[in-house]
Amino acid sequence: MAPRFIAKQLSRPTGFLGAVIRRMMNRHNARMNAFAVHQLKLAPADRVLEIGFGGGITLPALLNSAAFVAGVDRSADVIGWARRRFEQHIEAGRAEFRHGNVEELPFDNAAFDKVCTVNTVYFWSSLTAGFSEIYRVLKPRGIVAVGFLPKERMDRMGMPEDIFTSRAPFDVVGALTKAGFRDPLIARPLPNTPWNVVVGTR
Fold first, then answer.
1. Rounded to an integer, what distance in angstroms lies between the CA atom of residue 133 and that of residue 23?
2. Closest CA to 74 of 26, 116, 124
3. Mean pLDDT by 10 residues, the chain (202 residues)
4. Which of 35, 72, 134, 158 has the CA that lies 20 to 30 A from 108?
5. Which CA distances in Å does 147 have to 13, 136, 188?
6. What is the residue-wise DSSP string for 59-122?
7. Which residues contact 3 (CB under 8 A, 6 or more apart)?
8. What's phi and psi for 169, nearest 5 deg?
């Protein structure tokens, strides 16, 4: 079983070890993040939300492609880092970072055109609650992209079950559909890719 302190840092990076974990996540999750962003089909006028942005590897690409980028994370350290790193974008009104969680997103209804999140669904207390909130903050015809390692592979890693909840792709699709999303799709860059990105339209 993976050490509990590592599992806790993956769920909420904090302190010096959290900074190390964020850099590791950036390297390990780079391809999944890039693929998830590609599924959003970003337009220059888009307002985008990233949930659980962790090491922030996706934020520059989002800021280069969209009009406005917001990030929400459970870690106060992550929020503080993002506010320092992207201070100029914040001052220009093109970025905002808030402390919070997916079950109670701190944003208005229909505030975003696109939402992405990668390797966070393991930490959601409820898929139904999370996708209902994402549905609420998305505009009509908005797109959500959700990247994660499927249950059969995550279970092999031996993560503590009270911190990580493994998710099967069809469970994620079912929760998306229940929340009101249309045309759910399970996407992978190659058939043998170990992770997937589930995409839905509001």
1. 28
2. 124
3. 57 62 67 93 97 88 97 91 95 96 96 96 94 98 96 76 84 96 95 94 97
4. 35
5. 19, 20, 10
6. HHHHHHHSSEEEEEES-HHHHHHHHHHTHHHHHTTSEEEEE-BTTB-SS-TT-EEEEEEES-GG
7. none
8. -50, -40
Q: Which two tokens stand for residue 85?
A: 């790193």
CA distance 165 to 147: 15
Amino acid identity, residue 53? F
pTM for the full model? 0.87
Structure tokens at 39: 């599924």
SS3 at position 183: strand
Q: How far is it, in rounded angstroms, from Cα 129 to Cα 176?
A: 10
Q: What is the DSSP letter of 187?
A: E
Which among 197, 192, 185 is positioned nearest to 37, based on CA atoms? 197
- What would the two tokens of residue 101 be? 């969680």
Tell me the angle at which helices 169-179 and 127-137 cross, rounded to the nearest 10 degrees.
Answer: 50
Q: In angstroms, rounded to a whole number, what is the distance separating the alpha carbons of residues 106 and 102?
A: 9
